Amino acid sequence: MERNMTQHYRALIGGEWQQGRRGSFAVDDPATAQVVAMVADVDVSQVDLAIEAADRAFDRWRRLSAQERCDLVLLWHNRLQENRQRLAELITLESGKPMAESLGEVEYGASYLKWYAQQGVRANGQTLPALPGGRRPMTVKQPVGVVGVITPWNFPLAMIARKVAPALAAGCAVVIKPAAETPLTALLMAELAQEAGIPDGVINLVPGSDAAVIGHRLCTHPKVRKLSFTGSTSVGRLLMAQSAERVQKLSLELGGNAPFLVFDDANLEGAVSGLMASKFRNSGQTCVCANRILVQRGIYDDVIARLKARMAALTLGPGALPGTDLGPLISDRALTRVEALVRDAVASGARLTMGGSRSPKGERFYLPTLLESVTEDNPIWTQEIFGPVVAVTQFDTEEEGVRLANSSEAGLASYLYSDNLPRAVRVAEALEYGMVGINEGIISSAVAPFGGIKSSGLGREGGQEGLEEYLETKYLCLGGIG
């Protein structure tokens, strides 16, 4: 990741660090809104060069043994661990999240490299029962090919690791388009991959300000056989349409609108702790944040009292300062959007009982906010808030709670708190979501499949399922065996 004293960063194409043919774009610190770096702004011709470099590298990379590839992925994991502080500082600088969260993201992201370094050697085919006529059927697993990777700004390290680790372990080469808001962490990751010995061209990184053009090219270039995208549902639909002509393999992790149900038989302190962990992580800017809080009527006042006390104790400030719980929102646009959501929610009948305004800490800081009496016809009910806003409603029966929870086109993450085991199982099975946290607010793990249903996407990341996303199953039929 070459840079000079003015903090200019370059793209990585075929093992070479290159300037952007469109010049450079600025990256700022959300806590201060000050520009902290200029990054190469690639054009579509450079995207083509990166794809061609990945295609050449793929032919060599796939021919390595699975163990050789996975050993290199493990070395990359080690380099990330050795540079955890440096990486965390970059994450905080460009995303604004508190340092404790940034360090946690490095650990979390690195865990995917370690997991797939161990799992990649287990991409096994099968020998099937013999067929009539002396035929022997079998299957083999082969890498998909060149993979386009488009990642969001809210987890600039973890989202790359979650996609690229299984791709490399499977034998694929990648072209990564990081979010324009947070490319610096991605560039350092690529530098560390080079230091780990991953061959030139296996990882290419094309930062750019024109996401639409880069995304379109990754969908339409004939040598890109798969696209993995994390981002909004609207952009996911567009990419899916662009990929349709070539029937490109897709993994889409799209928007969420997570319900968080608290039943009257729950451990209330545990439920509020789980809600705080889920809702306020990265200042509410994650796709699996608790978004719609549903509390059974008999415990409502108790839960709200506990929640207000915990929210009032949160410390806002720049992520680099010790003791910070909540950092800024990522951009002026993000803050303006959250303000508008809260304003419209109140205009539609919600009660603002805490927060609801900008904080004096800085231009992009928004106070922890509590909205009560949020009905399902309130516009905030259908929106992914992406901010430190808790929207709460009450329900009476288990059936009503499940119906309210499922009243969304999103189907990514959901949460329920109940100490009644039969109820917990019933509700978990009834929730129309790809993931369910049962008495737990933090659910992501390298060992488990991450992904949604309905309009929240296609495919899974993490676990053995994540490796399968980058493999094709080929059937071989051997005749004349006798």
From TrEMBL:
Occurrences of domain Aldehyde dehydrogenase (ranges): 17-475
Gene Ontology molecular functions: succinate-semialdehyde dehydrogenase (NAD+) activity
PROSITE patterns named among the record's database cross-references: ALDEHYDE_DEHYDR_CYS (PS00070), ALDEHYDE_DEHYDR_GLU (PS00687)
Protein name according to UniProt: NAD-dependent succinate-semialdehyde dehydrogenase
Catalytic machinery residues: E253
SUPFAM superfamilies: ALDH-like (SSF53720)
Endpoints of the signal sequence: none
Alphabetically ordered keywords of this record: Oxidoreductase
GO BP annotations listed: gamma-aminobutyric acid catabolic process
Organism: Ferrimonas sediminicola
Family according to the record: Belongs to the aldehyde dehydrogenase family.
